[in-house]
């Protein structure tokens, strides 16, 4: 056997195991240990972030409900009632109805007779007295036109009101300012919400950056030693980013759960009225909001830690 | 025991210096910490860097370890251009340079063995815990602390902590070891122990550069001496020709 050299292969599985174990130890285990050790200094950041994320969750859910409200209002505003003269010729009414029904901008056209209009009016608070005060039926027959887009209502109105079948005094229900008023109110609410969310985000990022900065400062000797023994950059920076992610995810989980719980309680308490003033806020939507809050917390925590590390950790 | 640690991977001379400074200047604002310094160190060479406080010794060591960049000139470490090395690649250079400090710089929460193993595993993630443990214990044994692997740094004397730091610095068998006042916090007997260790390390092919104020050690060892004064390399005395260095002691 003299002269034979045995070359053993290094078992690859063991190498992979060692790499995974070392990465886990230096990146995650070290970060978790340091996070727990520095809990006292991290707690203010954690609670502020949780509070801010909770507020953001609430604002988000409110925004979602307002968006749905706007959609409902838009749907209602895009319904154009074309009021017909009492003495309108049936052919004129038929022609107008056909013309509107064939218009590509129109979704549907329904006819409401005077009797149906009266019947409907009796369900609306205040109108039955008006109906009773008059000897005859004061409510006109109408064509109820559902326009596909709110922006096209004015054009359809212009088409309808020139028909001889239409009441010349009060031709349609079109109110140029109504939808614009809704839109401007909602736009103002959205702008305020976005500004508030941005402010909350800025505060959350600042709080986390400062907490990671404090962590870097308290472990500057350890960081210096790691750098001097040749630890790669990810190994020095990574644990701080993981620490930020832990803070962010815990804050996000707490805020997400509270947001979800609060929405659930609202839904359970007043199911009928809740769906009216917060349309679309269902259990699924609340759960999605909770998950989004959690994800935002995780992202904010790790992202702001990354910013802090880049700014405060020398290489 | 040191042979077991160092001999298998001791670097062969590749015909190029391990450290090469070419017209290196380093300024802090308007003050020159190093001024047009030229020198080189060959593989296995043990050299002392001496000079009064503020002469630029630490700056020179920091340039070697790429903690600083030169304002002008070139710094080559084992063939790596440290003067133009990107921050993302500094770790590669530092794995080729073992460092020993006056204040040891051990992680207080880790045992002696873990401190040594850390340097091994952060540089090479493929090293398993078992291998790291064995090699760390070998390194500690090589520096005379085989039985203190499980001790925490605060349970060790200054000299022992410095030995742990030396074990940490050489466990990856780097081609270069730099030491900044390694005996500064130690009594004379302990200082001699550390100096003997550094001599042994150099004997196994590792280039060793020691910044020191300890004239007694410098004069007794009669190794190459680089003298810095006000940032300028004013003397480069070859081994065996350092004399008594009385002029430095008096300065």
Please give a quick description of this structure:
The complex is a heterodimer of chains A (315) and B (251). Chain A has helices at residues 12-37, 39-77, 90-102, 114-121, 127-133, 153-161, 176-218, 220-228, 233-269, 271-277, 283-312; strands at residues 79-83, 106-112, 142-147. Chain A has 315 residues and is mainly alpha-helical.
Tags for this model:
heterodimer, A: 315 residues, mainly alpha, 3 strands, 72% helix, elongated, B: 251 residues, alpha/beta, 6-stranded mixed sheet, 4-stranded antiparallel sheet, 10 strands
Instruction: Provide the succession of SSEs of chain B.
Output: HEEEHEEHEHHHEHEHEEH
Biggest interface and residues each: A-B, 23 and 27 residues
Shape descriptor of chain B reads globular
Share of helical residues of chain A: over 70%
Averaged pLDDT of chain A, please? Answer: 84
How many strands in all of chain A?
Answer: 3
Structural class of chain A: mainly alpha
- On the 0-100 scale, what is the average pLDDT of chain B? 88
Low-confidence spans of chain A: none
Distance between the termini of chain B: 39 Å
First and last CA, distance of chain A: 53 Å
Cross-sheet strand order for the largest sheet of chain B: 6-7-8-3-9-10
Characterize the biggest β-sheet of chain B: 6 strands, mixed
What Rg of chain B, in angstroms, do the CA atoms define?
18 Å
Per DSSP, the total helix count of chain B is 9
The beta-strand count of chain B equals 10
Could you estimate the helical fraction of the residues of chain B in percent? 25-40%
- Assign the structural class of chain B, choosing from mainly alpha, mainly beta, alpha/beta, alpha+beta, or little secondary structure: alpha/beta
Strand content of chain A: 5-15%
**Low-confidence parts of chain B lasting 5 or more residues at pLDDT below 50?**
4-13
């Amino acid at each position: 056997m003299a002269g034979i050299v045995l070359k053993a292969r290094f078992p690859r599985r063991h190498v992979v195991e060692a790499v995974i174990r070392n990465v886990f130890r230096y990146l995650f285990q070290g970060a978790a240990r340091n996070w727990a050790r520095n809990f006292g200094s991290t707690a203010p950041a954690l609670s502020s972030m949780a509070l801010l994320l909770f507020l953001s969750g609430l604002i988000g859910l409110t925004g979602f409900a307002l968006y749905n409200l706007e959609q409902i209002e838009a749907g209602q505003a895009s319904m154009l009632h074309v009021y017909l003269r009492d003495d309108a010729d049936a052919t004129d009414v038929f022609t107008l109805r056909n013309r509107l029904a064939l218009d590509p901008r129109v979704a549907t056209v329904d006819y409401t007779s005077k009797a149906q209009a009266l019947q409907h009016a009796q369900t609306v608070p205040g109108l039955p007295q008006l109906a009773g005060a008059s000897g005859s039926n004061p409510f006109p027959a109408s064509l109820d036109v559902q326009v596909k887009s709110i922006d096209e209502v004015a054009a359809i109105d212009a088409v309808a009101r020139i028909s001889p079948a239409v009441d010349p005094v009060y031709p349609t229900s079109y109110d140029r300012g109504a939808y614009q008023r809704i839109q401007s109110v909602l736009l103002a609410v959205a702008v305020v919400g976005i500004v508030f969310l941005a402010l909350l985000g800025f505060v959350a990022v600042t709080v986390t950056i400062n907490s990671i900065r404090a962590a870097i400062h308290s472990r500057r000797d350890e960081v210096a030693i790691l750098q001097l023994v040749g630890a790669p950059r990810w190994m020095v920076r990574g644990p701080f980013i993981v620490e930020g992610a832990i803070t962010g995810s815990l804050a996000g989980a707490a805020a997400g759960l509270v947001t979800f719980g609060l929405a659930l309680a609202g839904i359970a308490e007043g199911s009928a009225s809740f769906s009216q003033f917060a349309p679309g806020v269902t259990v699924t939507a609340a759960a999605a909001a909770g998950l989004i809050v959690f994800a935002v917390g995780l992202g904010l925590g790790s992202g702001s830690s990354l910013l802090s590390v880049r700014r405060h950790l020398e290489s | 025991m040191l042979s077991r640690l160092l001999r298998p991977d001791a670097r062969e001379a590749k015909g190029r210096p391990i450290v090469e400074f070419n017209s290196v200047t380093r300024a802090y604002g308007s003050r020159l910490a190093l001024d047009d310094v030229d020198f080189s160190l060959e593989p296995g060479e043990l050299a002392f860097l001496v000079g009064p406080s503020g002469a630029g010794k630490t700056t020179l060591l920091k340039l070697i370890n790429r903690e600083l960049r030169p304002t002008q000139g070139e710094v080559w470490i084992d063939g790596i251009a440290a003067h133009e090395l990107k921050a993302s690649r500094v770790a590669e250079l530092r794995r080729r340079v073992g460092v020993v400090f006056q204040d040891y710089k051990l992680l207080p929460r880790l045992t002696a063995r873990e401190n040594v193993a850390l340097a091994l595993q952060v540089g090479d993630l493929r090293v398993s815990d078992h291998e790291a443990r064995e090699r760390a214990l070998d390194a500690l044994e090589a520096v005379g602390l085989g039985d203190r692997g499980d001790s925490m740094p605060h349970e060790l004397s200054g000299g022992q902590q410095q030995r742990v730091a030396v074990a940490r610095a050489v466990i990856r068998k780097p081609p270069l070891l730099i030491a900044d006042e390694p005996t500064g916090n130690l009594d004379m007997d302990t200082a001699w122990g550390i100096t003997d260790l550094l001599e042994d390390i150099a004997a196994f092919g590792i280039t060793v550069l020691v910044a020191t104020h300890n004239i007694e050690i410098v004069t007794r060892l009669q190794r190459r001496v680089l003298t810095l004064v006000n940032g300028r390399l004013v003397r480069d005395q070859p081994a065996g020709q350092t004399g008594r260095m009385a002029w430095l002691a008096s300065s």
